[in-house]
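Why does residue order matter? Because the sequence determines the fold. Keep that principle in mind as you read this record.
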Amino acid sequence: MIGYRTPRHDAFGKAAARLDDLLNYIPARIAAVLIVLASAFVPRGRPGASFRVMARDGGKHRSPNAGWSEAAMAGALGVALSGPRSYNGKTTDQPWVGGEFSARIGSAEIRRGLYLFVVACLLEAVIVALIATLALAGQIGFS
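Structure:
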């Protein structure tokens, strides 16, 4: 990982990490919206909760981008994600995403999450194919 947060490596890669944050600002939010939409097509998906948790908790993550899709997924699955973590034996107190739900996650939630991810990817493929088809038909231009 470039820019790993240790005193020795703090400055290394900081510019690359900030550029990554900037370039992924819009794609991260598009991915979160795709997760919200996909949750409508997943058994026991919760599109309303997915949108609500995304809007409320998306900015709570220490990453300016990762929290949006994580929050959308938490709401869609009805689970709490993120929260306190342990790195090198030290616990960091991070806020919960989807904190009103249980943090107990098992194989069923993981399978549902993977299913939801695949559905979101398929939605993205359909949108890209539609845009490409319209562009080739001359209905929209990219010049």
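DSSP finds five helices and four strands in the chain.
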